[in-house]
Structures are given as structure tokens and as C-alpha cells.
Amino acid sequence: MRSLIALVIAAAALGGCRGEPSRLPPVHLNPNMDTQAKYKAYGHSNLFQDGRTMREPPANTVQYGLGKVDDEVYRGQDEFGNFISRFPMPLDKKLLDRGQERYDIFCAPCHDKSGNGKGMVAQRPGLVPPPTFIDPADANGRRIIEMPVGEIYNTITNGKNTMPAYRSQIPTEDRWAIVAYVRALQRGQNARLSDVPADQQGSLK
Ligand code: HEC
Questions:
Q1: 60, 71 in Cβ contact below 8 A?
Q2: In terms of Cα–Cα distance, which of 100, 84, 68 is closest to 152?
Q3: What pLDDT was estimated at residue 180?
Q4: Which residues contact 142 (CB under 8 A, 6 or more apart)?
Q5: How far apart are CA 183 and CA 5, in angstroms?
Q6: More confident of the two residues 61 and 170
Q7: What's the distance, CA 81 to chain centroid?
Q8: 181: how many CB neighbours lie within 10 A of its CB?
Q9: Nearest to residue 181, comparing CAs of 142, 153, 143, 139?
Q10: How many whole angstroms separate alpha carbon 98 and alpha carbon 177?
Q11: Is the shortest distance between the CB of 91 and ligand 1 below 6 Å?
Q12: How far apart are CA 113 and CA 166, in angstroms?
């Protein structure tokens, strides 16, 4: 037994710990998952025909965070940071209908379906009523009628004072659709008889 221990000690003394550099990996008795088969960046791979480990990104891939470069569409601002007054996309009935649907869901609870600011939330005692979009006698209404569309888009996106931001709930296109519908509400509530097509004026006179 003694000679066996002496042998082990001698083997250990001769076999290692002699201060010499070694190219072998250190003895790793319990490797767990420390070392696994894997590809390293710029390494070689037999799996792919071009022999490379790293793959080309699929065509038209946009790096995360580098999309949304169009300031007008995504921020409602021109290149100088001013709010735009024209819609950055063509307006059509489909967009307006979508805007109406989304407005009634997201905005009407506070701003009312008509935009007069007297939605159910605003009617609760103790809450300041949201401003109206439309009432010409109301300074707030006039201000929002004259507000550039980019600024209304910005209010929906980022909120304003007590109004919450809707950028994570309402996608960009829908936000513009809502702005278009807000414009329709303003126009509708301030319409004159001459705005109605002549053949439909009869019942309104
Ligand atoms: C939870 C209630 C609430 C909801 C929902 C809401 N708003 Fe508002 N909104 C407000 C309040 C309150 C203000 C007034 C903020 C302030 O103090 O200036 C306001 C202000 C505004 C203004 C005027 C901002 C300004 O510069 O004065 C616009 C435009 C507007 N909201 C549009 C919308 C649209 C469009 C939606 C739907 C996407 C919407 N809001 C949803 C409460 C709400």
C-alpha cells in the first residue's frame, strides 16, 4: 500500500506541475456543459456549401433599430423636426373607415364618438374633460383644427400630459387612419349646407 502511494506521488511529481507550458487543455474531471460542440464566428463548416459557419442575412433584412427611418411616417415630422401638415400617404375611404373603427375603440371613451370631449371617461366626476377636437366656439377645438396632422399623430404616439401614449397599442398605419378620421370629424361638425351634395340637401333645408 505504501509503495502504491509513493508511486502515485512520484507519477504526479514527474507527470505535471513542473512549470512547463502545455498545449493540452487542463484536466477537467466534471465538464458539465462547459465544453460543447459549437461553431465559432468566422469558423469553417462542412454543412454549408460555401464552407462558412456564418450565414448571409436573408435579402432585404433590416437590422433591428435601423428600420423606421422615414421621419414623416413614423414621427410625423419633416427633416428639420417640424410637424408635417400633409398626410404622408394617400387618403382613401378605406383608410377613413379604418380610422373610424379604431377611433371609436381607442379614443371615443375619452374624446366621445363625435370628438366633443364628453366621452364616458371624461364624464366621471373629478376628471378634467379632454379637449374637444371640433367645437369652433372652444379655443381648444379651434387649436386642434389648426394643428398640423403630424402633431396629432405625435399626440397619439407619445400621449400628452394626462393622455396616455398609444404607440404600443395602435400600429403606425392605424394611427394615421385615426388622424384622418379626426380631420373628418372636425370637418363634419363644422360643415355647411353647401358641403352636402346638391341632390341630398333637400331633407336638410
Ligand atoms: C384616457 C383618456 C383619453 C384617451 C383614450 C385618448 N385621449 Fe386624447 N386626450 C386626453 C386628455 C386628458 C387630453 C388633454 C391633455 C392635456 O392636458 O393637454 C387629450 C388631448 C388630446 C389631443 C390634443 C393634444 C394637444 O396638443 O392639446 C389630441 C389631438 C388627442 N387627445 C387625440 C386623441 C386620439 C386621436 C385618441 C385615440 C387614439 C385619444 N386622444 C385618446 C385623454 C384621452
A1: no
A2: 84
A3: 97
A4: 136
A5: 93
A6: 170
A7: 19
A8: 23
A9: 153
A10: 6
A11: no
A12: 18
Which is the closest atom of ligand 1 to the Cα of 179? 35
Question: Relative to the CA of 140, which ligand 1 atom is closest?
Answer: 27
* Average pLDDT over all residues of the chain: 86
The percentage of the chain sitting over the pLDDT mark of 70, rounded to a whole number, equals 87
Least confidently predicted of 82-91, 126-135, 181-190: 126-135
Which residue of 98, 144, 160, 186 sits with most ligand 1 atoms within 8 Å of its CB, as the best mutation to test the pocket? 160
Average pLDDT over residues 63-76: 84
Q: What is the pLDDT of residues 8-29, one digit of tens each?
A: 666 666 665 567 888 888 888 8
> For 130-176, how does the pLDDT look when each residue is reduced to its tens digit (9 = 90+)?
677 776 556 567 889 999 999 999 999 999 988 899 999 999 999 99
Ligand 1 center to 134 CA (angstroms): 13
User: Which one-letter amino acid corresponds to residue 100?
Assistant: Q
Longest dimension (CA), the chain: 121
Measured CA distances, 166 to 11, 106, 201 (Å):
73, 9, 39
34: phi then psi, degrees, rounded to nearest 5: -65, -40
